Amino acid sequence: MSGLTLQNIVKQFGTFTAVRNVELTVPHGTFVCLLGPSGCGKTTLMRMVAGLDLPTSGAIRLDGKDITNVPTHKRDLGMVFQSLALFPHLTVGENIAYSLRIRGIGKEAQKKRVDELLAMIHLAGYADRPVAKLSGGQRQRVAIARALAISPKLFLLDEPLSALDAKLREAMQVELRQLQQRLGITTIVVTHDQREAMTMADTVVVMNGGEIRQAAPPVEIYRRPADTFVADFIGMTNLIDFSADGTGASVLGASIPGLAIPAGLESGIISVRPEDVHLTAPGNAPISGTVTFVRDLGGTIETFVEAAGKQVVAVSMPNARPDVAVGQTVGLKLNPADCVVLKS
Amino acid sequence: MRREAPQKFSDYGPLFFPAGMLIVFFVVPFATMIAVSFFRRDPAGFYSPDFVFDNYARFLSLFFGKVLGFSLFLAVMVAICCVVLAVPFTYLLSRAKRKTQVLWLVALLSILSLSEVIIGFAWSTLFSRTAGITNLLVMLGIMNEAVALNPSFGAVLTAMVYQALPYTVLVLYPALVRLDPTLTEAARTLGASPMKSFFTVVVPALRNTIVATLIMVFIFALGSYLLPQILGRPQHWTLSVLITDQAIYQSNMPFAAAMAVFLVLVTLGLVALTVYAGRKGEAA
Lengths: 344, 284
Fold this sequence. Notes:
The complex is a heterodimer of chains A (344) and B (284).
Chain A: E1 3-13, E2 16-27, E3 31-35, H1 42-50, E4 57-62, E5 65-66, E6 77-80, H2 92-102, H3 107-120, H4 136-148, E7 154-158, H5 166-183, E8 186-191, H6 194-200, E9 203-208, E10 211-216, H7 218-223, H8 228-233, E11 238-244, E12 249-251, E13 254-256, E14 267-272, E15 277-280, E16 287-296, E17 301-307, E18 310-316, E19 329-334, E20 340-342
Parallel strand pairs in A: 3-8, 3-9, 6-7, 7-8
Antiparallel strand pairs in A: 1-2, 1-4, 4-5, 9-10, 11-12, 11-14, 12-13, 14-20, 15-19, 16-17, 16-19, 17-18
Helix pairs in contact in A: 2-3, 2-4, 3-4
Chain B: H1 13-36, E1 40-41, E2 47-48, H2 54-59, H3 62-94, H4 98-112, H5 116-126, H6 133-139, H7 153-178, H8 181-189, H9 194-205, H10 207-222, H11 226-231, H12 239-249, H13 253-283
Antiparallel strand pairs in B: 1-2
Helix pairs in contact in B: 3-7, 3-10, 4-7, 5-7, 7-10, 8-9, 10-13, 12-13
Membrane topology (chain B): Multi-pass membrane protein
Protein name (chain B): ABC transporter permease
Domain ABC transmembrane type-1 (chain B): 68-274
């Protein structure tokens, strides 16, 4: 099978287990984001794919070939480091040509490829500049071009955009995704920024405590989180307790008809995204509560409601929201299809 | 951090003590030496004040030229050997475990506590026929009979490299510790073997440090006068040996001073040339 396969990867540092039993398949040409809080093992996992760390056990296969013990320099990959790691003693062109020079490719061919890559990253004519004279965004592009010079089988990026300011970062996310689609290269990005992951990835892999919690397309991660960690980590959510008695489920003191609860489950947690909590006039909905805070962001309005002793956040568009103020009573309507029953 | 230029005379206060020490113990003796180098030697006594160029003229002979040439050659060899040994060693040391690093650094510092005399006689024993390392090689069956390895150029070079290596490592260590480890990792992901990444990334990135270290070891080695005498033949004696000989045993202070001044000038010239060449290489 073409692509990258990780089989039961474990990495231990002394007694600490950084990555445990990771199983992951990345089909050829897809864009995968490893997403999680710091210390969740995502960078360690990527370093093992790159060969910079060796797994304690498990196997890594690339296009069907076992590369678990192949040294980094024989893996034909391109990697962008968080620090970028551009060589300070080389010019922009020499940095990009480094992997070609190491492979003994002729001067003419090197120059042609460097010009091609510089055009691709919109830095044509920068070949002879020292790296130190570039801005943050330009350095970022040079690091990307350097990693892509040999047309690698795997493109790895470790928190590549974390050093850029917010505006530039958003622009680079789009650019990176478009570049990846154009080249059709198998790409893995490590990030702790869920917006970044949602923007770029075909598959988002959410990690915590060294384990994969969920690996799915971004929308599915958002709409159908596998557990409370994923639901809470990705975007804003309301985690609400429920109890079930076999015939129906009760949430915030009211029953929600149509909410499918797995048989035998007596209590648990449901996740409801704030935009799926609909505010109505009191009495028009089974659940009612008191408004405790309103955050008007212009484009959207967040309303904090206390219902049955629990705080629920509703996000609405300004024109689709009843005019309520702090202290007033409102009704809350939940659509059973929008509620996800979670393992707690 | 913003630093204000000193405003009042008293702002220079912290400099008074070091400036005084430098003047009393460096500028005054050096000026005296320059002055003495123009004095006339008095065979009956010591020297008499004068302004003659005889001392410099006497120096311009094939014999002293050869000695000067050998001194510079020896110092350059020591510098190159030290840097060639110390750069890979220090690189590996800086990537080693904390405990290993401390152990090695303590061992290296302890070599600095040895006096040149002890180092010289220790190596002369190690290189001797009766008790030297060749006896070990005979025991191992590598050599047929034990031989004396000193006096020889190799013996002088070995002992001087041994003496200068700790300084070299200690000068290189901070620069190598600061070197971003992801640079070599990046080189490896780009297809360079660990060896290639060392030569294409670590060494070029540390070019300036390496040049500075070469100069430091070169100057350090130029002043050596004990080891060449203990471990070398007379043709391995450096200019420093001859200066000592003239000053102490021949009581010819003016000539010794002239040689010393000449040595300082040649050294400064070579260092300036190296720095200039380094600048030019950087601009290119």
